[in-house]
Amino acid sequence: MHATLPLLELSDFPSIRRKRLETLQVNLGYRCNQSCVHCHVNAGPSRTEMMSAKCVDDVIAFLRASGVARLDLTGGAPELSAHFRRLVQSAKSLGVHVMDRCNLTILEEPGQEDLAEFLSANRVEVIASLPCYLKDNVDRQRGVGTYSASIRGLKRLNALGYARPGSGLVLNLVYNPQGPSLPPPQTELEQAYRAHIGAEHGIVFDRLFTLVNMPIQRFGSTLLSKGQFLPYMRLLRAAFHEENLEGVMCRSLVSVDWEGTVYDCDFNQMLGLPLRLEGKPRVTLADLIGSDHSGNPIVVKDHCYGCTAGQGSSCGGALS
């Protein structure tokens, strides 16, 4: 695995500061049932890093004390955590909106046979990764058979009411480019998704989020091995749009890793760049309780150009 942080360290990315915290994003662990080419986490079946029961208790305590409105669960495959369901139910009992970043194939994993029903019963928003609407592209990026399993998963969620009018069950899809390029316009691509998977499979969804592939971890290493890292960085920098700085996710979100350390975003987590708090070499959720950190500086490096290039990119898709 080629490290990309040394190539991102020296940066002229504009300084940005925090707004009010609205979303707590929790990475429950790096274990996953898939090993995708574009994965910025380097997640896979052989990863063993998973959040402990004590750390999950700390997350619940923070939600109770902070009043944060949204809990964004990610991984790896967050559902593989032994504490995933307890965390979801605890958050819902506190009135917190819960989002699950689901790879869809997890719905067919042994031991997860009732996962779709659990998500529906707890009214969890599903943000489902489907990096293309074409079978060959998805299988190339995520492994043979992934597309068919993903379609089965989407049909199952639709059957439970997801994305159906009046159900209140939200199902959003996520697109990633196949390689070192920017996503096409989100609105146009969403229409293409609807036309294809609607006509071919009868699938409905609420929104499509387009994400830029970040030049870190597995994807960054692949770029380096193919001699594409520097051209890709030039592409991101050339496509920088200052107006996207207003909406980048790190201004209203914090990311927590499997050990309980807090970061400005999931990408900084993967680069080992923790959130800065005066006098604290390692910030935990307990350090954030009872204080307002609006205005605090955000740790930025050259990978931040990925979130501000073109139409912008965040956990909620395009910014403009």
How is this fold's topology laid out?
Blueprint: H1 5-8, E1 23-27, H2 53-66, E2 70-74, H3 84-93, E3 97-102, H4 115-121, E4 125-129, H5 135-142, H6 146-159, E5 171-175, H7 186-201, E6 207-210, H8 217-225, H9 229-238, E7 253-256, E8 262-263, H10 266-271, H11 285-288, H12 305-308
Description:
By secondary structure, the chain is α/β, with parallel strands linked by helices. It has a single domain (21-227, 249-293), classed as TIM Barrel, CATH 3.20.20.70. Helix content is 33%, strand content 11%. The protein contains twelve helices and eight strands. It has helices spanning 5-8, 53-66, 84-93, 115-121, 135-142, 146-159, 186-201, 217-225, 229-238, 266-271, 285-288, 305-308, and strands at residues 23-27, 70-74, 97-102, 125-129, 171-175, 207-210, 253-256, 262-263. The chain has an eight-stranded mixed sheet with strand order 6-5-4-3-2-1-7-8. The radius of gyration is 19 Å and the shape is globular. The model has no long low-confidence stretch (mean pLDDT 92).
